[in-house]
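Could you join me in thinking about how sequence relates to backbone shape in a protein? To get us started, please write out a protein record for me. Would you write everything just below, so we can both look at the same thing?
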Amino acid sequence: MTQEGGIATPSQTVGPFFHFAVTADDGLGVLATPAAGERLRLRIRVFDGAGMPLPDAMIEIYQANVSGEYGSSGFSGFGRLATQADGSCVFETIRPGRVTDGQGRAQAAHVNVCLFARGLLRHLYTRVYFAGDPDLDADPLLALVPSERRATLLASPCASGSWAWDIRLQGTGETVFFDL
């Protein structure tokens, strides 16, 4: 706020400066050593409300290892990449194990996602789950999402251990984001 009787000053949006500093290390897209578990490639694409790809977003992921533990030996569980011209980035990681929430309830295998992009007043949090996982129906967080919107949180299997997931910031098929 400005001096007495003033008005609130506008907020600044996040980005678009990620390609210049924070995402310079493509090595942050490789999360695991070959012995860390079932390897997979997770391709994430980001689209704006008009369906156009965002070529200058930044995606951070954080996930558990195959045993459902965070930050273990041989597996950092953290990755950060900038999106390319087609709005995508690809993480080389492993399939995470089930973790428990603060009340001891088991959650389905998932990857936590934080999205930074131009036009956002703050970063967004979401999760990506794996389509076909038999544990999806028992996941306590996913149960809070209306059934017709759950598909926005599911990665689809592709060829040879790859998975694809789209983040839509607005409009039809808008991804579910969590208010943390």
